[in-house]
Amino acid sequence: MSAKNKLHSSQFHPILRKINEQNVDISFHNIMYPVFIVEDDNQQQVIPSMPSVYRFGLNKLIDHLTPLVEIGLKSILMFGVIDILPKDEIGTNADSNKNPVIRALPILRQKFPDLLIACDVCLCPYTSHGHCGIIEEDGINNEKSIERIANIALEYVRHGAHIVAPSDMMDNRIFAIKNKLIQNGMEKRCSVLSYSVKFASGFYGPFRDAAKSTPQQGDRKGYQLPPGSRGLAIRAARRDVDEGADMLMVKPGIAYLDIVRDVKNEFPEYPMFIYQVSGEYAMILHGAKAGAFDIKNILSETLISMRRAGVDCIITYFAPTILEWMKDGHL
Ligand code: PBG
């Protein structure tokens, strides 16, 4: 054996172990918290498929976020959910002035001036059919869908979103959004975070319950990537980069870390997000509750692995728990 390559035991001093873990620390800016907001300002709705996650009305959301911001929450990702306002074919209430996200934005900006606010942009929570685009007899009409998506993004930016994050997966939506922002002189106000590499995944199950966005018919395979494809993943990221995305995302998280590494290697100059989605949340939470493992162990290992794969920011429903641990110096 050559002496050169010998992994010796001094590598196992605790500080050396830390030094060997390159760039995997979790700081406050590495965590983004997804929140669901409903129309009734004073409501707090339980989501049966996602214990400890709620749909909040604006006042309840402010109450919920205030202590989190105090202990270091730096960013949120907002999802609007409606059950009083009507849903229709084109998702009119995605950007009407009654939309809960549009109403909340100026108030949250004022209440939490340092908080970074991202808005998910999609049609599925607002359409009667539950799909992410506009449907016609022969399926999704891509042109109409991206025009609609771009208008929604513009409204969110006008009302104060720092980031718009289109999750619809229609072709060329990033270009449509960027163009729309430029035409309206808004492009400097806002970054576009593309859900570039979004797989058609069973891990989204609990979310569709949370966002009330299950498709009435069919599935989303027509516009989300097949889980086995690395090639399509890179091509999707490249297309979004070419169209002007400012930041990229891989979704879901844990099962797709090789894709994160591929995309990060290909586009090292772009911030990389990962979405630890609802099914991953449920899996870890229920596993821990059943006594299969310790939640802190598993969750911090998961987060570190995401950082190791090249992630700059982790979108996670566990944000409140993680912040608590960080406050106590345990992560
Ligand atoms: C769709 C959207 C989904 C998620 C975020 N945006 C669901 C889907 O594509 O079916 C999933 C998030 C999660 O599972 O936590 N607009």
Structure description:
By secondary structure, the chain is an alpha/beta fold. 38% of the residues lie in helices and 17% in strands. It is built from eleven helices and twelve strands. It has helices at residues 14-20, 58-70, 100-111, 142-158, 173-183, 205-210, 230-243, 257-266, 278-289, 295-309, 319-327, and strands at 31-37, 44-46, 54-56, 75-80, 116-121, 135-136, 139-140, 163-166, 191-198, 247-251, 272-276, 313-316. The protein has an eight-stranded parallel barrel with strand order 1-4-5-8-9-10-11-12, surrounded by seven helices. Strands 6-7 form a two-stranded antiparallel ribbon. Helix 7 packs across helix 8 (257-266). The longest helix is centred in the middle third of the chain and has 17 residues, at 142-158.
Hetero groups:
ligand PBG
| Biggest sheet statistics | 8 strands, parallel, barrel
What's the shape? globular
Task: Kindly provide the radius of gyration, computed on alpha-carbon positions and rounded to a whole number of angstroms.
Answer: 20 Å
Sketch the topology as an H/E string, one letter per element: HEEEHEHEEEHEHEHHEHEHHEH
Low-confidence stretches: none
- Biggest sheet: strands side by side, in what order? 1-4-5-8-9-10-11-12
Mean pLDDT: 93
Share of residues in helices: 25-40%
- The number of E-state strands comes to 12
Instruction: Tally the helices.
Output: 11
Strand fraction equals 15-25%
Span of the ends, CA to CA: 37 Å
Indicate the structural class: alpha/beta
